[in-house]
Every structure is written in structure tokens, then in C-alpha cells.
Amino acid sequence: MASNLVKALIRSQILPSSRRNFSVAAAATTHIGIPTDDLVGNHTAKWMQDRSKKSPMELINEVPPIKVVGRTAACEGDTNPALGHPIEFICLDLHEPAICKYCGLRYVQDHHH
């Protein structure tokens, strides 16, 4: 009986529902009222129209794979800890270069035989 009362109160919105409401909300805006979707779109469009600059992916692909002695590479992104990323230990057992998930640097095992 009590459960029927609780269900009725939830339906009447007197008690809050434990379910989340996934209805479409109003578009997000900045503190001055500009829709954030416009800012992202304009920034991306600006980046894509200047063909003289290379994208970050193109720049990182120009770096040759780093040869490592051993089966594991430790990537920190940069020699300066303030500019790097969390340390990632990368297994080099495969024949193709292994890629750091944070910065995109590639590592290969340097075979000495």
C-alpha cells in the first residue's frame, strides 16, 4: 500500500524521481550569451582554412619512431615534467611501432642481434 502511495506522489511530482530526465535542455552558452557550439565551430573552421600550418597529428607523425633497448618504453611526453603527461609504460613486443595514447609518440624495440 505504501509503495502505491510513493508511486502516486512521484507521478504527481511532489516527491522527486530517482530517474534522471534526459530531455533536450537549452543550448549551452558562454557567460556573455554566445552559444558554445558556435565558438567550437568557428575555432575549427579557422584552424582548417589555414593550410600553411600543419595539424598536430601531421607534426607528431614527422617524428621518427624512438628506438628503445628492452621490451618496455616509458613515455612521459617531454623531458620537463611540467610539459608532459602521466607516465605510460608501453609494451614493445609487437613488430609495428607502439604509440603513446597521450602524445602520439611512436616507439620500437631496438634489436641488437
Automatic annotation (TrEMBL):
InterPro entries listed in its UniProt record: Znf_CHCC
Protein name, entry field: NADH dehydrogenase [ubiquinone] iron-sulfur protein 6, mitochondrial-like
GO biological process terms, semicolon-separated: mitochondrial electron transport, NADH to ubiquinone
Native organism: Raphanus sativus
Gene Ontology, cellular component aspect: mitochondrion
Segments traversing the membrane: none
Annotated Gene3D superfamilies: q5lls5 like domains (2.60.260.40)
Top-level taxon of origin: Eukaryota
Boundaries of every Zinc finger CHCC-type domain copy: 70-107
